[in-house]
Design brief:
Mean pLDDT: 91
Number of helices: 14
Order of helices and strands: EHEEHHEEHEEHHEEEEEHHHEEEEHHHHH
Number of strands: 16
Radius of gyration: 22 Å
Strand content: 15-25%
Low-confidence stretches: 401-405
């Protein structure tokens, strides 16, 4: 096959690797509009289950990613000024730039052509002419998807809260949270390490807090100074780093965003197929975006493994399977985002109990039960099988009732 992949993110690069492994005679080209090494974000998170899948797909790139990752097991939360610790499963962090470099090197090693600073226009672009398969891996604002707005059934909903991706020289050895109450409301931070020198910090707050603190009017340098002051106990005096780099320019605007959840009714049109954020997004608070894009690549490659399967049938099977598999992640992301949008509901709890419910934020039951009562029921359910069964039975019914409403 002649395959063009538009977008050099983790999903697109990994798909190119898988296709060349399946059949070295495939002619595969990846076009990335940005220069090599230019990427948004700081680090990405994943869990051990992803490594098992990557090892099955391509052991060499999986081992390279594992070797370049850091790991943690504890979760730490600072609520007001009180610190609490929760023991959890092992998580992993890796710099996004490092992951992309490893995947690009592996792709080239297998014979993939990777072209940087090479934007691709609409469907008539010369890079797409005569190709058997075109993969739109060009993100949430996919040019290729938007060229056919009536074909994919794209829907986008925007969240209420504002957030900003930042880096810091503080190296975290646990997944850490800090919740600070200001005169304008709550503001909070998620932080995790991704190398021996840097960590990611995502700061989030509601719209009233955002405007009340003046973050809607500040440049990047001023907003970083304010956030460093608010989260001083979390950062231990280390600085925050914005997109402007180590020395934030007073003329650089702060990169605050509201999260957009994107879905598509169908994932392919003709020989054009969607992958990763071009097909779907899930709220960053569940830390699954990169994992889901890599899983898309694995399923798409598997659907194309048998050359006797017609292309339309293979792409249909890929889209159907992934949309089904994503239901649980999309539900978890939706409830997680809502938990943070309704944060004051949970902040009356003592810190240890609030942190316990933070871990339960994916539950469809939690929004419908008073937090103190939910906490007691959850603790009791750990001891009583009958209560565990009731939670499993009641949750899906509340979800369906909420959707009907």
């Amino acid at each position: 096959m002649k395959i063009t992949i538009v977008g050099g993110g983790p999903g697109g690069l990994y798909f190119s690797i898988l296709m060349k492994r399946q059949d070295p005679s495939h002619e595969v080209t990846v076009y990335e509009r940005n220069p090599a090494g230019a990427t948004y974000g700081w680090g990405v998170t994943y869990w051990a289950g992803l490594l098992d899948k990557l090892r099955a797909g391509d052991p060499e790139s999986a081992e390279a990613i594992a070797a370049a990752s850091v790991t943690w097991t504890d979760g730490v939360a600072i609520v007001r000024d009180q610190r609490t610790v929760h023991r959890g499963d092992a998580g992993f962090g890796i710099g996004r730039r490092r992951m992309l470099a490893l995947l690009a090197d592996r792709a080239r090693e297998l014979g993939v052509r990777v072209e940087y600073e090479h934007p691709v226009g609409g469907p008539g672009a010369p890079e797409l002419v005569g190709r058997d398969l075109v993969v739109a891996a060009d993100g949430v604002n996919s040019v290729l998807r938007e060229a056919h707005p009536d074909r994919f059934g794209t829907e986008v909903t925007s969240g209420r809260n504002h957030y900003v991706w930042l880096g810091t020289t503080k190296v975290f050895d646990s997944f850490s949270f800090a919740f600070k109450e200001t005169e304008h409301g709550w503001i909070w931070c998620y932080a995790y390490g991704f190398s021996g020198e840097r960590s990611t910090c995502v700061v989030e707050c509601g719209p009233d807090t955002w405007t009340g603190l003046g973050l809607d009017r500040m440049n990047e340098a001023d907003s970083l100074r304010l956030l460093e002051k608010l989260f001083a106990d979390l950062l231990d005096g280390e600085p925050l780093i914005g997109r402007g780099g180590e020395q934030a320019d007073a003329g650089t605007p702060a990169q605050w965003l509201t999260f957009r959840t994107l879905t598509n009714r169908t994932w392919h049109h003709g020989n054009l197929v969607l992958l990763g954020d071009a097909a779907h997004t899930t709220h960053y608070s569940i830390g699954a975006g990169t994992t889901l894009a890599l899983e898309d690549a694995l399923v798409l490659a598997a659907a194309l493994r048998d050359p006797s399967t017609p292309l339309d049938a293979a792409l249909t099977a890929y889209g159907r399977r992934r949309r089904s598999e994503l239901v649980s992640s999309q539900s978890a992301a939706r409830y997680s985002a809502q938990w943070y949008e309704n944060l004051p509901r949970y902040m009356r709890l003592e810190p240890a109990r609030m942190f316990a419910l933070l871990g339960q934020r994916h539950s469809p039951l939690l929004p419908h039960i008073p937090p103190q009562l939910y906490y007691r029921l959850d603790r009791a359910a750990e001891q009583l099988e009958s209560l565990r069964r009731l939670k499993r039975w009641l949750g899906p019914r509340l979800v369906r009732a909420a959707h009907r409403a």
